[in-house]
Amino acid sequence: MAERDNPQAPQTTAEFAALEAEEFEAEERAARGTPQAGVQGAAGDDAGAVARGYFGALERGERTAQREWYHDEASDLTMYGTWGPAGKWEAVAWFDELYAAFPDFRLEVLDLISEGDRAVVRWRARGTFAGPGRFQGFAPNGAGVSVEGMDVLWAREGRVGRLMSYTDNATIARQLGAMPPQGSPAEAGLTRALNARTTVAGRLGGSTEPEEIAAGVWRVQGGFPGDCNVYLLRDGAGLTMFDAGGRYMTAQVRAAAARLGGIDRIVLSHGHPDHRGTAPAFDIPALCHPDEVADAEGTGGWRYWQLDKLPAIHRIAHTRVLHPRFWDGGPVRITETVVEGDTVAGFEVIHLPGHAPGLIALWRAEDRLALVSDAFYTVDLWGRAQEPALPFEAYNLDTEMARASLRKLAALEPAAAWPGHAEPVRGDVREALERAAAG
Question: Do the Cβ atoms of 276 and 329 come closer than 8 Å?
Answer without folding.
Answer: yes
